[in-house]
Amino acid sequence: MTFADWISQPVNWVFLAIGLVVLFTGLRVVTAKNVVHAALYLVGALAGTAGLFLLLSAEFVAWVLVLVYIGAVIVLFLFGIMITRAPTGLDEGLDSDNKAWPSLLSVALFVAMGWGSIEAFGTDQVITTGSATSTELLGESLLGRFVVPFEVVSFVLLAALIGGITIARRDLTPIEEEERASV
Amino acid sequence: MIVNQFLILAAALFALGVYGLLVRRNIVLILLSVELMLNAVNINLVAFESMLNTPEAVGQVFAIFVITVAAAEVGIGLAIVLMIFRNRRSANVDDLNLMRW
Amino acid sequence: MPFEIDYLALAPELIIVGTLILVLVLDLILPRPQKYWTATVAVAGTALALLPLGLLALNDETISMFDGSYVVDDFALVLKGLFLVAAYLVFLMSHHYIESERYYQGEYYFLLLASVLGSLVMASSRDLIVLFIGLELVTGPLFLLAGWRKGDVKSNEASMKYFILGVLSTAILLYGMSLVFGLTGEVSFAGIAAATAGMSDEPALVMAILFMMVGFGFKIAAVPFHFWAPDTYEGAPTPISAYLSVNSKAAGFVAMLIVMYQALPGASDVWAPILWLLAALSMTIGNLSALRQTNIVRLLAYSSVAQAGFMLVPFAAAAVAGADLQQAFGATLIYLVIYAVMNLGAFAVVIAGARKTASGELSRWAGLARVDPILGVLTAVFFFSLAGIPPLAGWFAKFEMFRSVIIADPGTISLAVIAAVNTVIALYYYAKVVKSVWLDDPVGEFPGDAAAAPAGSLRLALGVAVALTVAIGVYPSMAAFVRDAAQVLATGG
Amino acid sequence: MSNWLVLAAEEGAVIDAATGGFWADTAGIMLVTPFLAFLAILAIGKRLKHQGGEIAVAALGINLIWATVLFVMNMTGGVLDETTFEVGRLGGDLVFELGWVVDGLSIMMFFLVNFVGLLVFIYALGYMRGDVRVPWFFAAFSLFAGSMLILVGAPNLVQMIIGWEGVGLASYFLIGFYWDDLDNVRAGNKAFLTNRVADIGLILGTVIIGVTLGSFDFSTLAEAAAEHAEALSAVAFTGGLLLFLGAMGKSAQFPFHIWLPDAMAGPTPVSALMHAATMVTAGVYLMARVFPLFQNLAQDTRVWMVAIGAITLFAIGLLALVANDIKRVLAYSTVSQLGYMMTAVAAGGYTAGLFHLFTHAFFKALLFLGAGSVIHAVHSNNMSDMGGLRKPMPTTFWTFVVGSLALAGIFPLAGFWSKDEILATLGFEGYNAVMWIAIAGAFVTAFYMTRAVALTFFGTYKGHGEPHESPRIMTGPLIGLAIPSILFGLLNIPGLSWPGIGNFTEWLGVRVVAMGDHHAEGIDFALAAIGLAAALAGIAVGWLIYGKDHETQEQRDRFKVPALYPLLRRNYYIDDAALGVVGVTAGPLARFVDWTNNYIIDGIVNIVGGLTKALGGLVYNGLDQLGVDGVFNGLSAAADSAGSALRKMQTGRVQQYASGFVAGALILVVLFVFVI
Amino acid sequence: MEWLETWGLTITVFLPVAGALLLGFINRDNENALKRTALAVVVLAFAASVAVVAGFEFGGGPYNTYQFEVNQTWIGAINANYHVGVDGISLPLLVLSTFVMTLAVIYSWNHWEEPKNPKAFLILMLILATGLNGTFVALDLVLFFIFFEIVLLPMYFMIGIWGDKTPRDVPGFSKPFETRLYAAIKFFLFTLFGSAFMLLGFLALYFESGDSRFGNTFDIPQLTQLGAEGAFTGDFAFFVFGAMFLGFAVKVPMWPLHTWLPDAHTAAPTVGSVLLAAIMLKLGSYGFIRISLPILPEEAVTWAPFIAILAVIGIIYGSLACLAQTDMKRLIAFSSVGHMGFVMLGIATMTDIGINASIIGMVAHGLITGLLFFLAGSMSHRYHTREMARLGGNIKLMPVMGGIFAFTAMASLGLPGLAGFWGEFMSLVSAYNPLDGLSLGVFRTAMVLGAIGTVLTAGYMLLMLQRVNLGEPSTEWEGHEFHDVDRFELTAWVPLIILIVIIGFYPRVIFDTTTDAVTSLVDMAFGTETTASLPTLARGG
After folding, report:
1. Which residues of chain D lie closer than 8 angstroms to C230, CB-CB?
2. Strands C63-65 and E167-168
């Protein structure tokens, strides 16, 4: 199919719009000179992604993305930024001076991946049956066939939680422990 | 819509993430870049899913798992950042080169 | 649709789950002086989890659950056994180490148990998602445990490096998996195997395999994905380094084995050459780097890189027409088991030695055997075993490894020669350790409490390790049952 | 050993021989007793009166009984027997055997070795009294005799080698007997090594012949040679030449004679035994043992052998003219006499050569012992310290004169007959040139012996102290040797077979294969006369030059002049024309030979030795330590540096690790996706 | 003796290691108990080996039939068995091993190098004994490999701990090493380098035998059978032989793989050098005879000239190197290179005579060089130096020791009538007429060069005697009181001397055991009965 046929489909305009947003914000995430801005740009990128998911009629995943990331993760990030007192203003020292290698690598990586997928999938269509994937289906497979990972992943979270706390918390001095014990 | 338009977008995001991971000094920003990469993966999965329409929507399930794990990663990462910050008053990776050869 | 669940088959996992919850609870209620109970519980739990394995081993029919995404067969059992025994030894090593250094104990064992759980799950996984989650559960806690010596910046650095590279590898791995999914529309290995049958010339598939290999390569610390290993091993608490070098490496290998032999047997002509290269690189670079190490832990780190290379060697044989896949598969597996035993032993020696020398620097270990001959003997045993000198277990591992690649094929033969040369290089630095322990004159007094014998638990660990090392070495048939287990899986190939 | 007799009978040249019965069967005792003596002396020698000397004497005494009995039996009947034990089978039909063969040849040698040996031993009892390490001396001495006997009794080449090397070893011990002085040790080394070099010939010859024949036995060799076996004839030339090479070493043939003068470092009795009966005769004996090989197959080699022998007998004889050390004079003369024997044997004069060997043994031993007795008296080897000794030492003097005359070949002493026989053979075999050389040699021989006698016993005494006649125990053997030196020539008068006992030729004839060598039917009086004349001329000239004693230093230097101061000498000869002739001929020639000896041959040896050592140094320091070893060190060093290079990669910066990570992945992609 | 049949070898092999365990329980201060136990153990092992000799049927059967055979499953998975047995070829070496080991223990009774610690030393010796004995009786490649390697560790420690402590510079390295450390590591690496390839070769055989009637097998007799039937040929076999060649050649050692030897010998403690020279070097040449030749006959023939050339280079080269030595022990060490050169030359001829030569050469070299190292050790023990320049007149200071030294030197230079002669002479004999089809040119040149080698040998031996034994003692020893040989030394040495003489004059003691086995070996492997000889000239009568 030619670019003309492609662009003639309105849905692709939408895709183009969202895609550009995602790309732009993504670029800013890795280039922004201000930490907080970077975090906020990530919000943009994720939101865009959610949009794409909607295009792909994966609503449930889209909302999960929004909730988990924009709801939790970003907040977590901001906390992290605050606590570590990363310079919230402009900061030239955010990036390492040597950018040539990384850019080269990432471009090469992009080329390789892109080429590979074009080779593989050519112009395969995305079939969207208007109706979104039913949440029920997801639920069944999550609690059915994928119940093991579903359970296990909870341990991942639990471990991350407890371990994170233990690692991140300020250790008590022996004296404080005495008090703690006496109470 | 063809699947490749999503795939290439994802590839671009992934590459950006890699770039960030290699360039950023501040550990928090490195984490952000990692999120970009994982996100790219999600795009792939979902796009594939809607291309293949597997009976159990495996792709989307996979994506959900990835999101969850990503969240956990962030938690772990930030905890480590805090610990380091507590000891070194800095979240800069360049300062972390005590150990070499 | 409801699934019937065989709880006996899941018993080991369930027992571990129970144990780690119990550990959490105990950690909450016990006052600090009594917290060492958590260790005891952890050890007991691990030991207990070994029982159902025995029962399952007796009836050798394969139990498959959840659309075959979770399977308990001999192969899985062997690996679970390996993981549990290794974990058991690590716990024994940790006990005194953690307690004496006043680290958080409850959480420590909790996280370690979680990681063990992950490895158990992974051993049974026949499905990309389960595999991925399993791996994450293995690795996630370790990111934190690597930094467990919170006060020590080296430890922080260790965990940071491990973490950043870890997530990078995870991302790449996932990208690969997503491609596989996209190409096949399957996540179950059986399905993938069926779908990729004639697809080996598909660049996307090659790329996918490569990306997944990057992920696994990170876990097993294969060159060029090994950079984290030395730094992390050095910085992390020694028992964790031991765990990293054995369990998490083993986990990586298991993942690789299952994926390659179960999901992608058809594409062996793709991955065999790649692994050929990785093997050669890992052996050579790992050994050469190890030559110059002065810190014994870093030396072990590089040695584990090299050993990973040796374990990869048999994979390369899989591509050769008419190669005995079971043989190759079994070789890696046997190597894995033996390596686990002797490497844990080596780390145990390091812990015991560090208590005497209060240093990981080889120079300070000089003449250690003078004050503690037994420790000296153990050092000799484990390091020579790693070097592959009969009649210590290591020789049989190397032997099997060579055996799998001596096929009339230039590729494998050349790899065999590379391996042979590397064996000699490796010898040099293993002997160097033994040399400084036995032959060199001590530099001054040993600062550590030179009189202090290793803690009881550590002694037990050493005892088990040395017994296994010698026994397997003298009567390798002990380890041979692993091959039978291997057949189960490799017949797919 | 039936086949021997059968074969001998076929050849028809041999009187039917008895097997020798008890005495032949037990002849092996002779090979053993000296070794028992060796051990016994080492064990208890110290405590005995003569410090073990008596044991040695006893051993040879016992041997002499057997030797004599067999000798007589051989005279009367002829004895032919072989006894062997298998000591090892190599697979194939190659077998190692030890044992002893009793036939004319070996009996003759048995008698010679034991008789001369016994006398020398007895002499040594006196000579060595009060010397250092006497037990060790007699032990080694017994070893010397014992090894020689093993060599003589050898039924095959391997045992021959054993005895051969044993003799070499013993000579090494004895020459280096005064090892406190490293010069003597070096002399011993020189002797041993020179022999060892020649032994390459013997060993390789043995190998070639042995393997070709499938047996090392002399009998097999003789039979094969007699039958002109083509397999043997194929290797005959090489093998023969190699064996001869070995013989040259032991018999000090030119150019291997270099070790002999140095061998004088040992005590005089050693020299006596070494030159008379044991060591040096071994070469000739070997040639005689394998004679059939040369007789029938290896004719081409004989030319060489004759040439070598001729050079030796003349050139080395000249050396004796200029030597000052009396023992050296005798040593050179021995070499020259060996030249005679070798030439004879090579020319086909089997009997002639061996007969000369036989007679020479007696008078040469006599001369050495005489010299020893003189040295014993004046405590110096140099004739410049002697002179006028005939009065204080009559017995020594007369016996020495007898020996000299015998050596010079004066009728009717032993030497005359044997030398005449050689000349006759040479003439008969058509080696006329060589014959004339031999005659010239006879002249030279007489010349230097006269010189020796004159300088030693005539004129005035120039040494220190008051020389005395040696004790009875030393003079006794002198007399004991003088008698055979006079008489034994009669044993083999051409054409004369003594009733009942026959003659030397017949005794020797008792062999596997008759030698068929020429034995003159009668005396060739012309030739005899010429030989005798040459000898007499030699004596005359010698006496003219050295007879009168001159008192003043420069005058006494006169006899040294030809050797040392050419200018002086030429002036000197001007005022004495008669002597001038000899001077200008003999002098330069002698000096030339002397020079070649010292610079060319000896030089070569030294250079070779030096080079070898240098090469050793090169190989070791250059190659081994740097090269071969260096490779190893280089490799490990390389691995080492490679290690340190890799360390650079481990910068400790996580992001560089990460880039390595990604780069690695990418490279793999490029490699396996795009390249492959 | 049914019992002996089954247990004889196993006892000989494993008694020492059991003894080592036993020693482990004895207090290290209780020196006498330690020594007595060790002695008892080695004596028993020796007795066992003698019993084996007693029960041995001489001249029995065709090649590849073994006596006292035991064959038990060991590693079923790879079909590797505990298969041991002796034949005429291995028997003498086995006895040599147990015998020398006994003497070594006796000698070490009152000779402890620094740091003393008899317990450790004895334990190492016993482990070593097991390794050595085992290698000679192993009939399974894997088993052989194991024993072959076991030998390494004790020797490594012996050299490394009790070795020579003087520092020395090593080309390529910045800082000087202590000799012992350098030597130990070097020895270790060289040998393992070789054996790594040897293992590859074994495995290759294992796989190649896959489609044979035995299936994949490590069993030496079976492989020999196959080899004789021509199962292994072509490039494959060529490389296999090469791999095994590396393994064995390092151990022998053959030029240019020999450089570990001088360092190891020089650095090792006396007993260490003795065992190294007397027994360990034989493992390599034995491997050639037992494994390389019969299993890969065709390749053996292909490689033979190459081996012969290296052997001869070794002979000449070793002797030349000896001439340049100033260190007594080092000189003796280099002499081993030459002597083993003769052994290898014999093997290279692929004839019964040659192989016989090599075996008796091994035994003789074991006895003689062992004794030489004993002496060198005892001397440097007394003089505290091995520099020949500082020695001299030794025979004056210590007559008995000097005498024995002279005797041994003479034996070592291959004096006929002493053990050393037969090996050298016979390998020359065999080299004159190698196996049909081998280049006469190469081998006869080798013969000549070898003969020249004997002269050089004599040269340096005499040089050594001159420098060490003869002349006036240097003034620095004035006033020193040197005690001549003590009774332990005598008990250790006299048996060796006697054996050297006996073998010298009556080599049958060896040949009667070996000849039949060797002849049948050559017959089986190369299908020829013997070196060419003239039947027409078989002795008449």
Report:
1. 650
2. unpaired
Q: What are phi and psi of D626, to 5 degrees?
A: -95, -50
Question: Are E160 and C428 within 8 A, CB to CB?
Answer: no
3-state secondary structure of D520: coil
Put residue A55 in one of left, alpha, beta given phi > 0 → left and psi -120 to 50 → alpha.
alpha
Residue type at D176 in one-letter notation? G
Whole-number Cα distances in Å, C82 to A13, B51, C40, C258: 55, 41, 20, 16
Both tokens of B67, joined, read: 């999101």
Q: Do A102 and D659 touch (CB under 8 A)?
A: yes
Closest in B18, B23, B94 to D653, CB measured: B94
The kind and range of the H/E element at C98 are: helix C74-100
Residues on chain A touching B15 (C-beta within 8 angstroms): 106-107, 109-110, 113
Q: What is the pLDDT of residues C422-473, one digit of tens each?
A: 887 788 788 888 888 887 778 777 766 655 667 788 888 899 999 999 888 8
Amino acid B14 reads: F
| Closest CB to D662 among A96, A109, A116 | A109
Distance in angstroms (rounded) separating the CA atoms of residues E396 and D33:
29
Q: What is the pTM of this model?
A: 0.80
| Cis preceding linkage at E473, omega within 30 | no
Question: Do D623 and E262 contact (CB within 8 A), yes or no?
Answer: no
pLDDT band (50, 70, 90) for residue D7 = very low
Question: How far is residue D305's CA from residue D298's CA, in Å, rounded to a whole number?
Answer: 11
| Closest chain D residue to the Cα of B25, Cα to Cα | D655
How would you classify the pairing of strands E80-86 and E177-178?
A: unpaired
Interface of A with B in 52-81 (CB under 8 A): 52-53, 55-58, 60-61, 64-65, 68-69, 72-73, 76-77, 79-81
C391 upstream amide cis, omega within 30 of 0: yes
CA C5 to chain centre: 29
Written as six digits, the tokens of D96 are 């190692």
β-partners of residue C127 are C188
Could you tell me if residue D113 is left (phi over 0), alpha (psi between -120 and 50 degrees) or otherwise beta?
alpha
Nearest CA in chain D to C292: D643
Q: For C204, which residue in chain B has the nearest alpha carbon?
A: B7
- For residues D649 and D664, give the distance between their C-alpha atoms in angstroms, rounded to a whole number: 13
Spatial distance between the Cα atoms of A51 and B2, rounded to a whole number of angstroms: 17
Name residues 335-354 of chain E within 8 A of D (Cβ): 351-353
- Which residues, including other chains, have CB under 8 Å from residue D595's CB and lie 6 or more apart? none
- Residue E136's SS3 state is helix
Which of C79, C93, C90, C92 is closest to C50 using CA atoms?
C79
ipTM of the complex: 0.76
Q: Which 8-state DSSP code applies to residue A58? A: -
Residues E331, E389: contact at Cβ < 8 Å? no
Rounded CA separation C333/E378 (Å): 53
Chains that touch B (3 or more CB pairs under 8 A): A, C, D
B35 exposed, middle or buried (CB, 10 Å; 0-12, 13-18, 19+)? buried
State the maximum Cα–Cα separation within chain D, in Å, rounded to a whole number.
Answer: 119
The pLDDT value given to residue D513 = 56
E313-367 tens-digit pLDDT: 888 888 877 777 778 888 898 899 889 999 999 999 998 889 999 999 999 999 9
Confidence of residue D650 (pLDDT cuts 50, 70, 90): low
Select the residue from C104, C178, C205, C228 to test the B interface by mutation, using most B Cβ atoms within 10 A. C178
pLDDT digits (tens, 9 = 90+) for D661-671: 888 888 888 88
Any idea what DSSP says for residue E140? B
